[in-house]
């Protein structure tokens, strides 16, 4: 594979050279950091779009196996892991999606744009917060590595995944108290660490809204 060398300038004064192979992910050179490395391996990474076990039924990430975020978001995620360890020793956060290139967003959109699933995928023109490295999809695992039961899997597109209706789901028996408690634990540590949840997906958390993300960070090509 052809090796490419680039010179980067950070903060207007730090200059250094890096080399990488043509097929390597570009994320580290967009100013993003490896979540697993920053957490010293305490946070697990299982990218669902780097497998065929997702709603697309296709591996759209290719060689990308690591989770990247902007530094501030990665630091907040490590803070969430610290909070989790205090509350539940041995438990760990598992990341199912993090920073996503806009090129992948286009590929995902092409697959769903004329289907009912299009409401769950942001168009490339609008962009996703994952395209800025400020959003993350996560769950929790216990001390044995078993994922906690959240009532639905990650990437489940139906109202049962929505935090907005959880009280009703509990009353109707569609969510158990254990499942709801697991969701609440996840939300508690993520919110305390500085993330915001959304109403439609229990697994999705973001550091900023779209307009703020655009002001602060470049989109990942």
Automatic annotation (TrEMBL):
Which keywords are on file for this protein?
Cell wall biogenesis/degradation, Dipeptidase, Hydrolase, Metal-binding, Metalloprotease, Protease, Zinc
**Coiled-coil blocks:** none
For this UniProt entry, the molecular function terms from Gene Ontology, in alphabetical order, are: D-Ala-D-Ala dipeptidase activity; metallopeptidase activity; zinc ion binding
Q: Which residues form the active site?
A: 201 (proton donor/acceptor)
Asked whether the UniProt record includes Zinc among its keywords, one would answer yes
Q: Which domain of life is it from?
A: Bacteria
Identify the residues that bind Zn(2+). 130, 137, 204
Site (Transition state stabilizer): residue numbering on this chain: 100
State its Enzyme Commission number(s): 3.4.13.22
Which cofactor does the UniProt annotation name?
Zn(2+)
User: What is catalyzed by this enzyme?
Assistant: D-alanyl-D-alanine + H2O = 2 D-alanine
Please describe what this protein does: Catalyzes hydrolysis of the D-alanyl-D-alanine dipeptide.
What family is it from?
Belongs to the peptidase M15D family.
Question: How is this protein named in the record?
Answer: D-alanyl-D-alanine dipeptidase
């Amino acid at each position: 594979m052809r090796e490419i060398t680039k010179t980067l300038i950070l903060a207007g004064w730090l200059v250094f050279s890096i080399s990488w192979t043509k097929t390597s992910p570009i994320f580290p050179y967009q100013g993003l950091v490896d979540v697993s490395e920053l957490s010293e391996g305490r946070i697990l990474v299982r990218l669902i779009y780097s497998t065929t076990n997702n709603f697309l039924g296709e591996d759209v990430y290719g060689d990308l196996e690591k989770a990247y975020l902007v530094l501030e978001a990665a630091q907040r995620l490590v803070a969430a892991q610290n909070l989790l360890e205090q509350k539940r020793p041995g438990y760990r956060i598992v990341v199912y999606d993090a920073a996503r290139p806009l090129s992948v967003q286009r590929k995902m959109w092409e697959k769903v744009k004329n289907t009912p699933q299009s409401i769950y995928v942001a168009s490339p023109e609008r962009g996703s917060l994952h395209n800025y490295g400020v959003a993350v999809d996560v769950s929790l695992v216990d001390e044995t590595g078993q994922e906690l039961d959240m009532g639905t899997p990650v990437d489940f597109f139906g109202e049962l995944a929505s935090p907005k209706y959880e009280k009703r789901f509990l009353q109707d028996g569609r969510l158990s108290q254990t499942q709801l408690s697991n969701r609440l634990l996840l939300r508690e540590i993520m919110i305390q660490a500085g993330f915001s949840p959304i109403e439609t997906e229990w697994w999705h958390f973001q550091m900023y809204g779209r307009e703020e993300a655009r002001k602060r960070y470049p989109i990942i090509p």
